[in-house]
Amino acid sequence: MLELLLTVVIAPAKILIASAKGNEHLRSPQMREYRRICEFLEGRLFSAGAHSFPQMRMRRGYGASLVILVVYVNDIILTGADLHELSSLKGFLHEQFRIKDLVSLNYFLGIEVSYSDSGVLLHQKKFIHDMLESFQSSSCTPAFCPLELNVKLKAKVGDPLHKPEDYRCLVRKLNFLTHTRPDINFAVQHLSQFLQFPCVLHMQAAIHVLRYLRGTSDYGIFFNSSPDLSLRVFCDSDWASCADSRRSDSGFCVFLSGSLISWKSKKQSVISLSSAEAKYRAMSKAVAEVTWVSRLLGDFGVSCSSHVPLFCDNQAALHIARNPVFHERTKHIKLDCHFVRHKLGEGLLSLHHVSNSAQVVDLLTKALPGPAHYFYLRKLGVLSPSNLRGAVRIGPVGIG
Predict the structure, then answer these.
(1) What is the DSSP string of 188-215?
(2) CATH 3.30.160 in the chain, residue ranges
(3) Which backbone phi and psi does 394 adopt, to 5 degrees?
(4) Boundaries of CATH 3.30.420.10 in the chain?
(5) Where are the transmembrane segments (predicted)?
(6) Which uninterrupted H or E stretch holds 168?
(7) Burial of 192 (0-12, 13-18, 19+ CB in 10 A)
């Protein structure tokens, strides 16, 4: 999904063209068709980047022209700045495969695309409405936030669900929705911990997320049209937040051009003995992500400046990262966490302190009260079409 987001952000002319191959919905024929498409692209000198997934293929044309394709079975996104190159490639694809040219990218894998003068908005409004209908929640009262502040969910507490498969189905759908809705990522991560033995309280919390989505169904993630392709990274954790295991929740956000392109909310795999240790572990995950993102951008021909700023709100964690001297209080931390020090020494990133009030990752590590939730929501670029400057269009400028 990150590569789809980067395709939207980096495409120089913001021109996106979708082609859909019309085949029977059978898995084996689809996979054979997918392999044929990949072989055809290799023959046309399209290759997967060294650090990207095989679903993404790219080719350098004349000058600085770059053509990028994202192939999912037999659905294709085609983008680039050279319209002649794109038209020629579509012609070759049509000769080899019975493609249907959908012209502008408006819908792909359940994700809807809207355009404005200031950028592109990816959202899943239709998916949300279908989900609300399937769980008889189309007329429910909207909630202000994804999770209630005072509810502490624990495993195997309360009456077990009569039909646990309903809970699993709902959480699975919510998880898919996190591709464009980082604001529910923490809630979904929290609810996913109870899939094996869900109880009534867990289902009530999941329905509360649905109530929140009913009031924010048109929200999506926005990518601005800024030409500044610089990276910024934020990381944070909520120490010992799990009521069952006392493990910490950690998260990170990676911004490109001020737009959120990668994020994660996850419970840490080990117990941290202090808040500083928990935040240092979160920092190591963020550094690993930005290492990969910078290499992926290199595949696109985007040179990332060194010393990518990484922001953390804990001075002790920053001190651990900067100080390579062995210390009694940090000797138990695994060596893989010291990956941060290694990348810091390489010059990949620079460490900065950020105040608690400006720590946007709070939205990914804990349930927040309404005003704070919506403040960070806007900082992450999760907006509704009404928030965008200029008229919202179905297709980009210059495309039918």
Answers:
(1) HHHHGGGSSS-BHHHHHHHHHHHHHHHH
(2) 2-109
(3) -75, -40
(4) 228-383
(5) none
(6) helix 164-177
(7) middle
Pairing of strands 349-353, 308-312: parallel
Q: How many CB atoms lie within 10 A of CB 142?
A: 12
Residues 293 and 302: beta-carbon distance below 8 Å: no
Fold exhibited by the domain 228-383: Nucleotidyltransferase; domain 5 (3.30.420)
The 3-state secondary structure of the chain reads CHHHHHHHHHCCCCCEEEEEECCCCCHHHHHHHHHHHHHHHHHCCCECCCCCCCCEEEEECCCCCEEEEEEECCEEEEEECCHHHHHHHHHHHHHHCCEEECCCCCEECCEEEEEECCEEEEECHHHHHHHHHHCCCCCCCCCCCCCCCCCCCCCCCCCECCCHHHHHHHHHHHHHHCCCCHHHHHHHHHHHHHCCCCEHHHHHHHHHHHHHHHHCCCCEEEEECCCCCCEEEEEEEECCCCCCCCCCEEEEEEEECCEEEEEEEEECCCCCCCHHHHHHHHHHHHHHHHHHHHHHHHHCCCCCCCCEEEEECCHHHHHHHHCCCCCHHHCCCCHHHHHHHHHHHHCCEEEEECCHHHCCCHHHHCCCCHHHHHHHHHHCCEECHHHCCCCCECCCCCCC
Q: Which numeric CATH code is attached to 2-109?
A: 3.30.160
| pLDDT score at 27 | 56
User: Which pLDDT score is estimated for 72?
Assistant: 80
Element (H, E) at 101: strand 99-101
Q: pTM for this one?
A: 0.87
Question: What would the pLDDT profile of 197-251 be if each residue is shown by its tens digit?
Answer: 999 999 999 999 999 999 999 999 999 988 888 999 999 999 988 888 999 999 9
* pLDDT for the residue numbered 67: 84
